From TrEMBL:
This is Putative negative regulator of RcsB-dependent stress response. It comes from the Bacteria. PROSITE patterns: PROKAR_LIPOPROTEIN (PS51257), TPR (PS50005). TPR repeats lie at residues 138-171. Keywords: TPR repeat.
Amino acid sequence: MDRSVLLLLVIVSILVSGCMQSEIEDELSRARKAFINKEYTEAERFYQRYLRDNDSGIERWNVWNRLVEVAGTVRGNKNRAIELLDAMLLEYSGEPDRYRQVLVKKGNMLIEGGLWSEAITVWSQLLSAPAVKIEEEATAYANLGKAYLMRGEYGLAVDAFKDCRELEYNNSGHKQLCIYELAQAYAFLGNHVEAEKNLNNLLQYEAVEVTLMARAKLLLADIYEQQEQPQKAIALLQDIRETYPNPRVVEFRLKSLQK
């Protein structure tokens, strides 16, 4: 091929590529501008066009997440947001870090929506996902326990919260919450011995968040009342008069016990 013809083809190729890149950038620019201006329908249209026309575009991850934000947070359409997250799970199944991020986002959305059965499936998937990190395991066990608890499957909730408690995760606040939830699950099972044991364990921790400490003491007071140890229950209730989120509950319980 003549060198001049070859050079011409190269130049044309560069120009076409440049034009296409310019169109892509312009499309994303329009989408971002529409989003900033709260023109969400327009923003969605441009973002969706970008995904359709750019199978391997470097901005796909950000565009997907923006669409999820518009659907779930802006419009409050959780079903649509979950559909988008499902599409993302397919696209990023070969990218472990992003795949797990999508699972976490979907799991949180299902928990917020009270879709306990579906949430259990997703958090279980996270635990078996490739290269799962310890903080992701901690989040998964805590949410599994919550979902089982809400479904009334207290034995499975105990198992999940025990795994959460035993995890070697350097986050004292998270461990404390798992211990409280484990105690609550035992209480629902009627196993007051284990519930009391875990609550007393929690009370030994330093720097427990004030509301969590108050909730733990209220639950322990419940257990003491059922064990016919009213003085222990009264002492705990008096201790949380100023810290429990709903003081009327505490006052009502105290009056009942002091009759």
